[in-house]
Amino acid sequence: MTRRTDVALTALAPATWGTTYLVTAELLPADRPLWAGAVRALPAGLLLLAVTRRRPHGIWWGRAALLGTLNIGAFFPLLFVAAYRLPGGTAAVLGAAQPLLVAALTVALLRDRPGRPALLAAVAAPAGVALVVLRPGAGLDPLGVAAGLAGTAAMAAGLVLTRRWGRPPGVGTLAATSWQLVAGGLLIVPVAAAVEGAPPAPDGPALLGYAWLGLVGTALAYVLWFRGAARLPVSRVSMLGALSPLTAAALGWLVLGQTLGPVQLAGFAVAVAAMVLGQLPGRTATGNQHDRPATGPEPDAPARTALGARTARSDQAEVDARPAGAKVGASPAQPARSRRHSSGRASSATASTTGSGSAPGGSSAAAAIGSANRCAAAGPASWERSSSQHTSSAVQPRPDRAAISRTSRTPTRVSSS
Questions:
Q1: I need a labelling partner for 320 at 20 to 30 A (CA). Which of 145, 202, 297, 390 fits?
Q2: Which residue intervals are annotated with compositional bias (Low complexity) in the record (predicted)?
C-alpha cells in the first residue's frame, strides 16, 4: 500500500474516537465512565484474542501489560476524569497536545528528533483545536488538568513504545492489539467496581452504544491505529489525533445543532492545515544521521595506499592458506625449468611493485592486487602508468641474467651467478 493509504486508514481511528462523545451523551448510562471504558475494551480484546488465538510469550507478557496499561488501562480512566472535571473543550485541547509529548518522547526513546515541519504542526494543531472547542469562561480545575495531561502522556508513551518494540516475529496487528485491550480492560474492571459499584443494567440504546464503541470505536479503531504506528513515523501518527475533537465538534454541529462561528471555522482550518503539514515528509535531524554512514572528503593518496595494503594483506592470507607446494602461476605438472623461469619473472614484478610503494612482502598476486586498488582509486591515468611500469619491469630482463629469445619457444639457460 502507498503512504497515502496508510495515512488514510490510520486517520479513521481518531475520527471514530470522535464519535465517542456523541454516543456517550446520547446512548450510554450517565455517571458510569469507568464501566463504559471497561465494557469498551475488555469484550473487544477477548473477541480479537478468540479470533487470532495467539498469546504472548516470554518478555512480551510484560510488554503487553505495560502497553495495555498506557494505551487503555490508564488512558481511559484519566480521560474520563478530565472530561468530568473540565469543560469538554479544555479536555480536548489537552488531548490535542499529544504530538508535542510524542516529539519529546521520540527524542528520548527513539533518538530521532522530528524536523521543523513536524514541530510546527505539533504546535499549530492544539491551537486550532482550542479555537474550535474552547468557549469564554472555561474553567481550569487543577485535578482535571493533571488528569488530562497524564492521560495524554500515557497514550503518547504507549504510541512511542509500540513503535520501538514493534511486534514479536510472526504475530499480526490483530493479536498484538488483543493483548493490549485485554490487559487494559482487566486493569479497569477492579477500579470501576471500587469507584462506581456494580455495573448498570444496559437497555436497548445502551447495548447499541456499547456495540458501536466496542466493535468499531475500539477493536477496529485500535487495530488501524497500531497498524499505522508500525508503518508511519510516530510524529505523523500523533498529528492525526486532532481529528478526534474535530470530528466531535462536527457531529455536534450536524446532529445536536451546535453552532460554529467564524472563530471555530478558522480553528478548523488551522488544525486541518497542521495535520496536512505534519504528514509531509520532513528531514529528521538526529536519529537518521546516526544511522547513515558519515560522509566526508575523498581520501587522499596515503589513505588509498593503506587501503591497497589492507587488500594485499587479505589476499596474501588467502595465498598462504593454499596447500604446500602450490605456487601462483605454476601448476604441479609444469617443468622445473619453466617454474624457475616463472618464479624469476614473478620476483621481478614483486620487486618493482614493492619499490613503488605497495604492500611489503607477499606474493606477486597480492602485490599486484594492492597496486590495482591504488590505481583504480587514483584514476585512469595512474592505471595506465602503473600498467606500463608492470609491463616494462616484467618483460625487461634482469641485469644478472641473459635475455630470453623472442623467437625461440625454449627459454635460454639462466646463469646461476
A1: 390
A2: 344-379, 405-417
